[in-house]
Structure prediction request, 490 residues.
Amino acid sequence: MTLLWLHRVDARLRALVPLATALLAVLADMLPLLHVGPASVTPLATLCVAFFWSLYRPDLFGAGAAFATGIAYDALAGLPLGLTSLVLLLVRHAVVVQQRFFVARSFPVIWCCFLLLALAALALRWALSSLWWGRLFALQPLVFELLLSLALYPLATLLLARVHSWIEEMDDES
Amino acid sequence: MKLEHRSLSRLALPLKALFDRFALAALIIVSIALLLLGKADNGLLGAVGIRVSDALVPVLAAAVEPINASRRAAAQIGELFALRQENARLRDHNQRLLEWQAKARQLALENAALRQLLNLEGGVAPPTAVTARVVADAGGPFVHTVLVDAGADRGVVKGMAAVNERGLVGRVIEVGRRSARVLLLTDFNSRIPVMVEPSRDQAILAGDNSREPGLTFLPLNPRMAVGQRVVTSGRGGVLPPGLAVGRISAMDAHKVAVAPLADWDRLEYVRLLEYSRVVPPETLARLQREVYGPPPPPAPAPTVAVPPDGAGAPIQ
Prediction:
């Protein structure tokens, strides 16, 4: 009985791993670790992680997790609450809807898809921010953000793939 | 048993899909509602945001320290190679500072003597300061703010000036229990009353999300030139006067650009200075409550009673 209960707790905790990595990515985005260039342009690790989990484990990275990640990002970055959560929810939905397309694709194809989706997500964030503050923000930093995120994605994939295979192994064991 | 499990999952899967779809729509609506509520600016969402920051600040503070240490180490390695030039530069600098120190001492004595002559009250009391570590800086093109790891529990209040060893960095706009948000000079919402030395022309330093904010509300025929120092003027009573802000870096028909002295890439610690000559309305209301007690219920008919301080007395 205790063993069964422990198993359940274990499974629940494992289900929280994608959310935990996404929150870690939010924290990484806040640190002066990846700030590059004069305008303090940063890659969006949060976006990379959200894309990865939406693609490989949408069951564990649900809409609630995307929302929570976005709210944490907005709160720490001083952005209007709901901005990043809306963007991440739509990113997750777009990936989940196109799930069939992604099956058994090679990494370069997925990387290109990430490029397109990141472009759409950053453009949406820019449009929402411009609407919210009632002013047009510069577009140039967006291009840098996009390129840096694109460069970060393979690295994020490398790390997250290990976490993913660990979750799968544990799933198989139980 | 297996069959039962299968039939259960056959039932559960569509239910889960339905729930997922519902959750997605609901959360999208919640996000949009949050955005609209935030736009209405009723202060509630700001409080939620700073609560979340409060909760995550210890984690960030723990993570930021090794990163800062490694950045410092990298910078030190770079400095090792330029040690000789740096030494010569510092010696030269020291020489000039000693001359300035002598001049400053002389001026301080003269100032004290003149004050005595005029029977003037002593200068402004030095502001109280809280030192805080910068723990989060999201960067990005939209807002230029940083989160620091000191909040109301260490005496931080809204409106405090944030300075580092070089000069003004920004001011506190949100205060939580353990964290506070500093609006940097460069943010497009930042407006700082400043003056240009030596002409003492007053202006407002308005951020525009670029690295170099511009001066607005200049006086007619401004007397300023590239390279002149810009300091806070203290107008409005929120920021202490005389804090170094930057130097005029460029002037043209559209913009008088100021290069802030703060080094945005090495913003590790800031000092938050308390200085408020003008009592903010909420503090005034609290003080009034403390002195006079809670406000009386509104009287149905006008009375002729005069309040204790005589503020309501008709002017003769």
